UniProtKB/TrEMBL annotation:
<dbReference type="GO" id="GO:0046872">
    <property type="term" value="F:metal ion binding"/>
</dbReference>
<feature type="binding site">
    <location>
        <position position="228"/>
    </location>
    <ligand>
        <name>a divalent metal cation</name>
    </ligand>
</feature>
<feature type="binding site">
    <location>
        <position position="63"/>
    </location>
    <ligand>
        <name>a divalent metal cation</name>
    </ligand>
</feature>
<dbReference type="InterPro" id="IPR036069">
    <property type="entry name" value="DUF34/NIF3_sf"/>
</dbReference>
<dbReference type="Pfam" id="PF01784">
    <property type="entry name" value="DUF34_NIF3"/>
</dbReference>
<comment type="similarity">
    <text>Belongs to the GTP cyclohydrolase I type 2/NIF3 family.</text>
</comment>
<keyword id="KW-0479">Metal-binding</keyword>
<feature type="binding site">
    <location>
        <position position="232"/>
    </location>
    <ligand>
        <name>a divalent metal cation</name>
    </ligand>
</feature>
<dbReference type="GO" id="GO:0016787">
    <property type="term" value="F:hydrolase activity"/>
</dbReference>
<dbReference type="InterPro" id="IPR002678">
    <property type="entry name" value="DUF34/NIF3"/>
</dbReference>
<dbReference type="GO" id="GO:0005737">
    <property type="term" value="C:cytoplasm"/>
</dbReference>
<protein>
    <recommendedName>
        <fullName>GTP cyclohydrolase 1 type 2 homolog</fullName>
    </recommendedName>
</protein>
Amino acid sequence: MPITVQDVIDKLTEPVEHIQNTVDTLKAGDPAAEVIGIATAFMATHKVIEQTIALGANLLITHEGIYFSHHDHTEDLEKDPVYNEKRRLITESGLAIYRFHDYWHRYKPDGIMTGLIEALGWQSHIVENHPAASIVSIPPMTLAEISEHIKRRLGIPSLRFTGDLAMKCKHIGLLAGYRGGGSLCIPLFEQESLDLIIYGEGPEWETPEYVRDANDQGKKRNLIVLGHAESEQPGLNYLAQCLQTMFPSIPTYFIPVEQVLQVI
C-alpha cells in the first residue's frame, strides 16, 4: 500500500498532543502524493531543495521556515527575485515540503536535543531533561578541551565563547536553537550549579554580558555559542534515522547545510 505525504506527517505528529497555531504545516506539495524518497534538513535552502530533487526524493522535511521568517510571512517578498526564484523551483519540481518544528521540540525528550547530545557523544552523561534544556555531567575537561571536542564531533570550524579556557568544567547546560536568552539561561547557572552553558544563539546583550559580569566578580561562569543551525542540525540527522526505521521501504537522506556565517 503506497505511503503518502500525509501518512508521514501523521506518523511524525502522533506522539505529541495536537498543537494549536503551529508552524508545522505542509508548505508545498500534495498531501495525497505517494512518497518515493524523504530528505531532512535544518532549512529548505535553495541548494537543499536542488539536492533533494537530485536525490530523487519528493518529500523534504525541514525544521525552519522556507522564506526567511519564523512564520513564513511573504507579503513583503512578492517582488523579490530571490523569493520568486525559490518559489518557482519548488512549484515546478512538485516537491512536498513539510515543516517539522514545534512537534519535534515537543517530543519527550526533545528530538533536536536528542540529536545534539548523541552527536556530542554525551548520552550516558545526561542528568536531567528540562523542556528547553538538558543538563549533563561529564568528566572534568577544560573549556578549551570541550571546545575542541565540540568542533570535532559537530564538524564546526570555529566557536564563540566567553569565560576561562583553562577552567575545568563538569556540569553543563545544553540549549539548542534560539534558547540563549537571559531569562532562560541565567537562572540555570544557579539552579543547576553549572560551570558552562552551550547554546545555539541568543541576544548578545543578555547571557554573554551576565557571564562577563560574573567572571569580573570572580564567579566562574563559561559560555559557548554554537550557532543556530550548528546546534539543531544533529536533530535533523537523528530525524532521518528515525524516519528510516518508521518507513524502511522509503529511501531517506539527511542533507546538511554549510555554516552560513563565516569568519574573515
